[in-house]
Specification:
4-stranded antiparallel sheet, repeat, single chain, 15 strands, cell adhesion, Immunoglobulin-like, immunoglobulin domain, Ig-like_dom, about 170 residues, mainly beta, Laminin, EGF-like domain, elongated
C-alpha cells in the first residue's frame, strides 16, 4: 500500500518569488510520485518547473511564480501493489495585494525612490509609490527607520553618484 503523509500548504505567494511544493509519501515498495497542475501532468512543461525526487518525497520548484502558475497542484503516489494511485491536492494563489503594482510608467523611475527602494505604479490610484528596503521608510524611502538601530551612516566614499547636493547610497 501507499499513502501521502504530507503535501505543502502554501499561503498566497508574491509574484516573482521561488515556490517549493513538497510531497512526502510512505509505502512498501516506495511509491513513484507524479505531479499534476489543474489535472494535467506537469512533465509536459519541464522548462517551467524543476523536480527533485528522493526515496520518500518529491519537491516541485517554481523559480519565479507568475499568474499562469496559479491553480490546483496534485501529488499522486503509486506503487506496484496499488491498482489506483493515491492523490492529494493543494491550491496555489498569488498574493492579491501586490497584483495591481506595475513598474513605474515614467522615465527616471530608478531615481524616484531613494536608498535602493523600488518604484512601483499602483494602477488603482494612478500614483507611483516606493517599496523600501529594510531599514528605510517614507513615500520615497527617504527616512531611516528609527526602529532599526543597526542601520549605519555611510560616508561619501562609500556612496555612489552625487545626488541633489548630497551623495546617493
Amino acid at each position: 500500500s501507499a499513502s501521502i503523509e504530507f503535501l505543502t500548504e502554501k499561503p498566497p505567494v508574491r509574484e516573482g518569488k521561488k515556490v517549493r511544493l513538497i510531497c512526502r509519501v510512505k509505502g512498501q515498495p516506495p511509491p513513484k510520485i507524479t505531479w499534476y497542475k489543474d489535472g494535467e501532468s506537469i512533465k509536459r512543461n519541464r522548462t517551467r518547473y524543476t523536480f527533485s525526487y528522493f526515496k520518500r518525497r518529491s519537491i516541485l520548484i517554481i523559480e519565479s511564480v507568475g499568474k499562469n502558475d496559479e491553480g490546483q497542484y496534485e501529488c499522486s503516489a503509486k506503487n506496484k501493489l496499488l491498482e489506483k494511485p493515491v492523490n492529494k491536492t493543494m491550491s496555489l494563489r498569488l498574493d492579491n495585494q501586490h497584483q495591481n503594482w506595475d513598474n513605474c510608467p515614467f522615465s527616471g523611475g530608478t531615481e524616484y525612490c531613494l536608498n535602493g527602494g523600488t518604484c512601483r505604479y499602483f494602477s488603482a490610484v494612478k500614483e507611483p509609490a516606493c517599496q523600501c528596503l529594510e531599514g528605510f521608510m517614507g513615500n520615497r524611502c527617504e527616512t531611516k527607520n528609527p526602529t532599526n538601530p543597526q542601520m549605519s551612516t555611510y560616508n561619501k566614499e562609500q556612496c555612489g553618484k552625487k545626488y541633489y547636493g548630497g551623495y546617493y547610497c
